[in-house]
Amino acid sequence: MRAELRAELLKQRSTRTTTSLLAAMLGLVLLAVLLHGLALPADKLTSRSDQLTVLVGWGEVLGALFAGLLGAMSITGEIRHGTIRPTVLVTPRRGRVIAAKAVVGMLTGIVFGVVATGVAAGAGSIALAARGLDIQLDGGDYALLLAGGAAAAALWAVIGLALGAVVRNQVPVVVGILAWLLFVEERLVQSIPDFGRLAPGALGRAISGQDPGTLLAPALGVLLLALYAAAAAVVGWLATTRRDVV
Amino acid sequence: MSALSVARDSIVSVTGLTKCYGALVAVDKVTFSLEPGTITGFLGPNGAGKTTTLRVLLGLAAPTDGDAFVFGRRYAELDAPAHRVGAVLESNDFHPGRSGRDHLRVLALAADLRLSRVEEVLELVELDAVATRRVKTYSLGMRQRLGLATALLGAPELLVLDEPANGLDPAGVHWLRSFLRDFAEDGGTVLVSSHVLAEVAQTVDRIIIIDRGRVVASAQIDELAGRGQTLEDFYLELTARAAS
Q1: Are residues B180 and B65 in the same domain?
Q2: Does the first or last residue of chain A, that is N or C, have fewer Cβ atoms within 10 Å of its Cβ?
C-alpha cells in the first residue's frame, strides 16, 4: 500500500487541479461568508445558532463540497485522461488503487476542511465586527466548527471518490455533487426535515454544530456520515474491481 | 493455418479467448502463444479485435471465456507486473497538465522503483531535454516515446504495444524499429499490434493475423519469404478469403 499511497500523493501534487480547487474554494468561502455577514438583516445574525448556520457554517459546506469534488476527480480525471490504464497496469489489484485514493482523499479533505472553516471563522468575525454585532460563538464552537469541517470534508472526499468510481464520467459527477449539496438538500431539509436531516450534506452540517434545532447532534452525525462513506467506499471498490477498465 | 502449440512456459499463452460485449463477439476463441526473444506482429483491420485481446491479456478487461496468461499467470496475479510486462495501449494516456517526468515518477512510485530509473528511461527515449514540460506541449511523436518510456520503467521482459507507430514520422518509425530489434536481441519479447503492414513487415519475426475476432493466420516471416510471398499478398489473400 505504501507505494500506491506515495503515487497518489504525487498525482495530486503534480497537476494544478488540487491548488485550483483549493483557490476556488477559498474564493467561494470568502464570498459566501462576507455576503451573508454583510447583507443579511441584523436580526438574522444575532443568535449563536444563526451565526453558526448562516455565516461560518459556509466553511464546512464548501469544504465538504470541494473535498467531494476532489475525491471524485481523483478517479474521473484518470478515466478522462486515460491515465487509469497505466495506473492499473502497474497496480492490477485495482482495490488497492481505490484504497490509496480514499486515504489520500481523506488527508487532502482534512486540509480543505480546516482551511475552509478557519477562513470562514475569520471572515465571519470580521463581518460581524464591521456590522457592530456581538459574536456569540465561543472557543468550543470554533473547535467544533474546525474539527467537524475537517471530518465532514474527509468523509465527503470518500463519497465523491465512490460516486466518481461508479459514474466514471466527470461532468455529471461534478454537476451532481454541486446540485445536491447546494440546492437539493436544502429543499429536502426544509420540506421533509425528518428525512432531510439524514442526508449526507445535512450530516456534514450537523457535525460542525450548525442548526442544532433541526439537525442531528454532532456525534451522531459523524457516525452516520462515516457509515455512508464506508458503504460508498465498498460500492466504489466493487464498481472498480468488477467492471472492465474503460 | 499453421499449428499453434500452447507451451506452458510461453511468455504469453492465450487459449480459446472469447470476449463478448452484449451480442457482439469482439474476440472469438483466439489462441496463440509467444516465445522468448521474438517480435510478433499482431495484425488485422481496424475493429478486428486486436485491442480487445490485448486489454484482456493485460487484465483491463475480463474474458467471457478462455484464458490469457503472461508468464503462466493471469496479469492481475503477477507479483510485480511492471518488472515483467511493459505495455502501451493508447498513445495519449497522460494528464495534459503533468510533466513527462512527473508522469513517470508517479508510476515509478506505484511500482516501487527507484526514481533514478525515470531519468534512465527519459534518456533512452530521448525526452530528457523536455522532461519538465507539461505533456500538453508534446507532439504526438513525443507522446508515443513517453508511452514507451512508461512501458520500459520496470525493465520488463515483455513489451505489449498497441499501434505504437501511429503518428510517428519516418524517422520515428525507423527509431522504433531499431529499438524493438535491440530489445529482442537482448532476449526481450515483443507483441506489437498494427493495421499498417509496412510498419511491421521489416521488424517482426512472426505474424498473427486476426479478422473479425478470429485468428485467421499465423506464420513466420521467413516462411512467407521462402514461398516467394510478400506479407501484403498473404494478408490480403487471407482477409479477402475470410470476407467471402
Answers
A1: yes
A2: N
Domain shared by B133 and B163, yes or no: no
Contact A14 B102 (CB under 8 A): yes
Mutate which of A11, A90, A91, A245 to test chain B, going by most B C-beta atoms within 10 A? A90
Q: What is the pLDDT of residue B242?
A: 62
> Which domain does B124 fall in, by range?
81-86+94-156
Q: Is the domain of B111 the same as that of B221?
A: no
Determine, for residues B94 and A81 on separate chains, whether the beta-carbon distance falls below 8 Å.
Answer: yes
Together in a domain, B139 and B168: no
Burial of B23 (0-12, 13-18, 19+ CB in 10 A): exposed
pTM of structure: 0.93
In whole angstroms, what is the distance from residue A191 CA to residue A29 CA? Answer: 26
ipTM of the prediction greater than 0.85, yes or no: yes
Size of interface A-B (CB pairs under 8 A): 78
Residue B76 within a domain: no
The per-residue DSSP string of A155-182 comes to: HHHHHHHHHHHHH--HHHHHHHHHHIII
Chain B contact for A169, CB < 8 A? no
- Residues A192-238: pLDDT tens digits? 999 999 999 999 999 999 999 899 999 999 999 999 999 999 999 99
Average pLDDT, chain A: 96
d(CA A123, CA B22): 56
Q: How many residues comprise chain B?
A: 244
Residues B22 and B66 placed together within one structural domain of the fold: yes
Rounded Cα distance between B122 and B101, Å, is 8
Of B156, B176, B200, the last residue of a domain is: B156
What is the structure's pLDDT at B2? 38
Is A85 in the B-facing interface, judged by CB distances under 8 Å?
yes
Mutate to test the interface with A, among B98, B121, B162 (most CBs of A within 10 A): B98
CB contact under 8 A, A16 and B97: yes
Dist CA A121 CA A59 (whole Å): 8
Residue A245: which of B60, B78, B97 has the nearest Cβ?
Answer: B60
Residue B3, pLDDT score = 39
pLDDT digits (tens, 9 = 90+) for B64-92: 999 999 999 999 999 899 999 999 998 89
User: Considering its fold, how many domains does chain B have in total?
Assistant: 2
* B48 and B20 belong to one structural domain: yes
